[in-house]
Amino acid sequence: MFRLQGSKVLAVDMTQDAVKAKNGSMVAYDGEMAFKKLSGGGEGIRGMVTRRITGEQMTVMEVRGQGTCWFADRASEITLVALQGDKLYVESSNFLAADAGLRTGTSFTGTRGASQGNGLFTTTIEGHGQAAIMSDGPAVVLRVSAQYPLTVDPGAYVAHQGNLRQSFQSGVTFRTLFGEGGGEAFQIRFEGDGLVYVQPSERNTIAGDV
């Protein structure tokens, strides 16, 4: 059971079950807990190969036991996402925790990953259960529909779910418009039906102002 204590701490109540969480994010626990370090990028041989190719740096731990475990990371805001058999795409740096029964993997993101310096792949979480994602400031959930596509600054993107198509395009950001940009600007366009999570702060990038 996932629940928030405030907006920056995740409490997970366990009864001999398990949760996957970002390595080093446990801040306290009661009861009896066992910790095991896993590898990010997915399970099994395919996950190992994907991590080797992409240089995926996310490390995950499995926590199993009886009691309550609390997770947090750099005072980031936490948002709970309920999955009903669908797939959540989330930047590795924004992942905090997920039910152990959820499948994790990687997905190719193309230009956006290269522009952010986070690798060419993003983390996927799929199945039935709960996941917790982090953001720099309270996350805003934006609806995408057939009538209303959405364009997002890559530095503010956190995650998305639903039947969405992504495209990557050069564009002009406000910083570029006012003469503060020093490189090529990229934007992400979402079309279809689903939800996009953005943060009110832009992460640092390495391919110009995006």
TrEMBL record:
SUPFAM superfamilies: TRAP-like (SSF51219). It holds the Pfam family AIM24. PANTHER family: ALTERED INHERITANCE OF MITOCHONDRIA PROTEIN 24, MITOCHONDRIAL. This is AIM24 family protein. It comes from Streptomyces coelicoflavus.
